[in-house]
Amino acid sequence: MNAYLRARENLVRHPRTWLVTGVAGFIGSNLLEELLRLGQFVIGLDNYSTGSLANLANVRDAVGSASWSRFQQITGDIRILETCKHACHGVQFVLHQAALGSVPRSIANPQETHATNVDGFLNMLIAARDTGIKRFVFASSSSVYGDSSILPAKEDHLGHCLSPYAVTKRVNELYADVFNRNYKLNAIGLRYFNVFGPRQDPEGPYAAVIPKWIDSMIHNTPIYINGDGQTSRDFCYVANVVQANILAATAETSEAANQIYNVALGAKTTLNQLFEFLREGLLPWYPHLNHCRAIHRDFRLGDVRHSEAAISKAVRLLGFEPSHTVPQGIAETLAWYRYYSTELPASETQKKTEAPA
């Protein structure tokens, strides 16, 4: 039995109370769903600046009313300290996902990104310290590696940050370390690498590439690739991220605590390869994709050329074992988007049989 199965079984036997910030977002809602399926009590905090009530409704439908009754929803902003303290009251584990993501957004509005990602993060650390949180797990980012040319990226080899967003995530890591040294706050940071999966928003100017391309393919609208398409990323299915969060929160060895871990698959996929994975996966349902071709345009400011993670530290200290490869994750993701697309061409019977569990 692997570490994650043991952790899940232990949580089922001994339910805890968790706080998930950014609970209505893509990753937050996936964490919520898994925790409720494991019989946990969950408090969710979100101001809905990027999160969606539809994501929470989707979780409610997925887990059922009995599990949903263990969820308490708080509408609030992490930029307000008292809100953070209120949300942390009575909680054992914090999974801090609330942030303003996106490199381009941070370049366009660095002050707004800083206010949420740094000031809000500091508020959450203070609240966790003052309420006696057992473990504080927070979302960092692969963007902190910046212009480092060392691949695969290892946790202790950083480059220069290339965007305000990357700076905020690095500041988060530094603050967490300082709070451990000065206040003994038990914190673990997870550097996410290009997470994708169900409930990731395809809309808006800062949408991630996978949901944006899926939406464009389904609705037969132009698809753009920044650069020549040989840019590569370590795409990571959201189930792997959920696993890492729960393992980080429940890790019992002292060596595993107060660390930073890469959370990824540990493999590179180029944008050209990604395009074909998605096109081929959707083609049986959308014949117009036979003629689908991407439009190449200039490289995007602040982007790195290649990204790949070394995940050996998480494997060794947390027992992390990615459950989904990129093709497996894409298959589950496409099933979800096909089911929830308003223009799904399948019959109602097919919809019911293909609905994600």
Which properties best describe this structure?
357 residues, alpha/beta, Rossmann fold, disordered C terminus, UDP-galactose 4-epimerase, domain 1, two-stranded parallel ribbon, 13 strands
Structure write-up:
It is a single chain. This protein is an alpha/beta fold and about 350 residues long. It has two domains: about 5-190 and about 235-265 and about 310-325, NAD(P)-binding Rossmann-like Domain (Rossmann fold), CATH 3.40.50.720; about 195-235 and about 270-305 and about 325-355, Alpha-Beta Complex (UDP-galactose 4-epimerase, domain 1), CATH 3.90.25.10. About 45% of the residues are buried. The chain has helices at about 5-15, 25-35, 55-65, 65-70, 80-90, 105-110, 110-130, 165-185, 210-220, 240-250, 270-280, 310-320, 325-340, 350-355, and strands at about 15-20, 40-45, 70-75, 95, 135-140, 185-190, 195, 225, 230-235, 235, 260-265, 270, 295. Strand 5, helix 8 (about 165-185) and strand 6 form a beta-alpha-beta unit. The protein starts with a helix and ends with a helix. It is built from 14 helices and 13 strands. The longest helix has 22 residues, at about 110-130. Strands 3-2-1-4-5-6-11 form a seven-stranded parallel β-sheet, sandwiched between helices. Strands 7-10 form a two-stranded parallel ribbon. A two-stranded parallel sheet has the order 8-13.
